[in-house]
Amino acid sequence: MNPYALLGAAIASELVGTTALKLSAGFSRPVPSLGVVVGYGLAFYLVSLTLEDLPLGIVYGTWAALGIVGVAAIGVVVFGERVDLPGAIGVTLIVVGVYCLNVVSEMSAH
Hints:
With 110 residues, the protein is an all-alpha fold. The chain is built from four helices and no strands. The protein is flat, with a radius of gyration of 15 Å.
């Protein structure tokens, strides 16, 4: 399978796990708590598969950065959280960093 597709699935799984973590109310709600365990467990498994084909720096940098951007977006859309100008600039810099790491840098596997 395409390692970038696996990485995308790992990021999606992490987003599910993190959203469930917010909904778990300190692990006091069983269904969201189960979502945390399954989401993070699947995310780590998929990242481990991705690392068989892609460099560690690319995988972890992309996974962490897009996880941050995704969780920030979920916070805004689902939980009504606000993003101010410095936050928007920070998210933009993260996206630019992922682009540089994966497209411009010679670190990537292209």
